[in-house]
């Protein structure tokens, strides 16, 4: 997937300025596709130039005008074609898993603080997802198509975090057992 596709999806959900789009990436989309603000602005400029985005200038008093980006028909057609392309299952690079295997050649107990730190970070992210679910999807029966699809992605993130926490608990139990043994 290219950053362009993530931007098209986000702007179809809600037109936005470059600043607002970058903030949206920081808050939600960035959990699935990361980009720096500089990358986002560079791609917005390219997509505006080639006609995939329409821009509405908004005058601001005492500040430079801002641009509100929306998806133009060529952008919508590109996203439609991309949606129908086959996608390869993703492979995962997981540094913590390699470190756990490496601990066999050193002191396995030395990994405990790092695994605990990772577990805390995943627990915090899970709490963020769960509170976002309560805030953004209070009535699951009343969701429109866009909200249902956003919610199913969020549920995937929730389940991933739950699985990761359970795995890290297993790793911690194993490391503690090895340390004691």
TrEMBL record:
InterPro entries (alphabetical): Tscrpt_reg_PadR_C (IPR018309), Tscrpt_reg_PadR_N (IPR005149), WH-like_DNA-bd_sf (IPR036388), WH_DNA-bd_sf (IPR036390)
Residue intervals of the Transcription regulator PadR N-terminal domain: 7-80
Transmembrane segments: none
SUPFAM superfamilies: Winged helix' DNA-binding domain
Signal peptide: none
Domain Transcription regulator PadR C-terminal per the UniProt entry, residue ranges: 92-175
Pfam family, one: PadR
Name of the protein in question: PadR family transcriptional regulator
Organism this protein belongs to: Kitasatospora nipponensis
């Amino acid at each position: 997937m290219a950053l362009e596709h993530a931007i098209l999806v986000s702007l179809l959900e809600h037109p936005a300025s470059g600043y607002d789009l970058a903030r949206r990436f920081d808050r939600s989309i960035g959990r699935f596709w990361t980009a720096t603000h500089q990358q986002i602005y560079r791609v917005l400029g390219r997509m505006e130039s080639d006609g995939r985005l329409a821009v509405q200038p908004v005058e601001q008093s005492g500040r430079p005008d801002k641009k509100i980006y929306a998806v133009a028909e060529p952008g919508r057609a590109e996203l439609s074609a991309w949606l129908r392309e086959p996608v390869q299952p993703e492979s995962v690079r997981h540094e913590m898993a390699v470190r756990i295997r490496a601990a066999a050649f050193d002191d396995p107990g030395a990994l405990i603080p790092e695994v605990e730190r990772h577990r805390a970070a995943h627990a915090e992210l899970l709490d963020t997802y769960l509170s976002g679910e309560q805030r953004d999807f209070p009535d699951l029966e009343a969701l429109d198509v866009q909200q249902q699809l956003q919610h199913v992605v969020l549920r995937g993130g929730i389940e991933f975090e739950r699985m990761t926490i359970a795995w890290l608990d297993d790793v911690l139990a194993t490391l503690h057992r090895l340390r004691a043994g």
